[in-house]
């Protein structure tokens, strides 16, 4: 795996050889660094802290909630003809570190001890294939576009595409799986099988697959994702598949897929999409009949007229679009005036419109309805549909809230929901949106263990003020508790508070702090400040049991900063930290750290910072621009070389976030937040830093971490620059391929930060 084939050689970079991922020289550097790291910090597996054992016991605990996905219904009692739902789950434990894909019925799932049946044993498959497989999910053949005689008239899922990666990389192998015989469909049987690539594949019908993959020269974008979509007919060779859609080499990716809305009184939509940047796309849509989805030689297509032409969806390129029944949902990332001189719809709003009118008569002829409109402190966070309801999730000051709407012929009618936003994570997902209004309810909080309940959107009630009626302290839509995670760490006397720091430009930056109720304000509390601040990704309350066992149980304070660049207050909050405004993210994080010091929760010597990926870039910036604020830093799977990030692996796809180093962006602002180029040789002291990454990370190139560390070691000789480096040989962008690796990496990081800060108490 050489990631530099398309990257121009930077003759001024003496460490560019570390970009050759699996060269002998690069791997020897990583192995030597790993040995040196464990020699200096100790092996977490044998540490007296027992952090590794605690984390591993959590990750492999049989008390974890087995979350499930429904794959249709089947007759479970031949005598009575009783049907039950088939639920699937991917389960990992100490005996099955790679996992079991298994099934049970809903009736059994509701019991304390469900009767699980193994469908695919990933560990056994890895042994058989002699490949360290990591499960990456499945993509099922939609039941309604399957052969009715095989799917029991759309009740049963019969086929799915399984994705498996070597060692946890983003690139996957695709294998078709028969859900009836519970065996892989071989190529000899006409099965859809694809080699390792960053493939995008979905069923057009049972025997036709949309595939974007690595078909050879010119088939991938600069970001390494599909540039070409082919229509692959079962029983033919992929090499003979017809190209049906192409994008530009400079695009991030393209795709084609089906959206069957017949159950909601809509048509079947065929959709093609070009994602030009991380935040902009163009889409083309046409309505088709079921027969149009079939293979060209299928007898059922005889006499069927050709489908209509594709119509470009005339919305802003940064808007999100999806089809639901007869409506088209439009989420806005910038203000929009669809009718010249008409209403301006605000950034962050969610609109809906009659899809047929929009596509046939144009956007000017439409009646736009607002489902959600943000304020300065609220943000749209997504939605899910049951058969008859829409459940909208929003945030208010980074606290979650659910609202319920009945879907009618004319639109969406509000029927109830949470009256107050709460410091918790609360998500809703349809159990089976084609069958009923049942919903999964997922709740958790910083100190509240995760719980899974069953709800029913049709039970939502509200009085004239829109206030939810509660029964036995349960929301009206709650039906029954199903699973609850026991406390995985001792949260006795822990409290969660939300506070606000003032950034350099006066903006109030929220952060959540978890601490003992009677925390002593003497500056000596080992405090961990975590942040991300990018790609419109929000941080917020959720149960992180590994943080609890590794940090809070020891008496530490845990803090999450909701800095700009994230999505906590919608697209505007994210856009406030883009490109030339990136410094706002870093100023926000520094402001949170300074607020903790000023409030005497901690002092610089007892304050650690941690972040990964884009958060790793954040850590690199804290290391180089605010070294006196932190006593320890953990920088995980980071971006650090912003001069070459766009030439490495998926880096080109992030130029919409950071900028283009090959333009004036570099001189104007990018050089200001490239930690690799900000190392100050005159600096006498930098805080202790642990840098971790994965050899198999094919999203953020491990060279970012490798080069930074090697440069620091070379320039920091005879200086107080303690830097430790560990590169997991497997793991992908997540940094670990199984529970043991994850526990190892977690313990290494938390023990390093804790030990370092405890030494700082005396400073």
Automatic annotation (TrEMBL):
Belongs to the peptidase S9A family. The keyword Iron does not apply. Pfam families: Peptidase_S9. Residues 549-756 form the Peptidase S9 prolyl oligopeptidase catalytic domain. It comes from the Eukaryota. Keywords: Hydrolase, Protease, Serine protease. GO terms for cellular component: cytosol. InterPro entries: AB_hydrolase_fold, Peptidase_S9_cat, Peptidase_S9A, Prolyl_oligopep/macrocyclase. It is an enzyme of class 3 (hydrolase). Gene3D superfamilies: alpha/beta hydrolase, Prolyl oligopeptidase, N-terminal domain. One of its GO terms (biological process) is proteolysis. Its EC number is 3.4.21.-. This is Prolyl endopeptidase. GO terms for molecular function: oligopeptidase activity; serine-type endopeptidase activity.
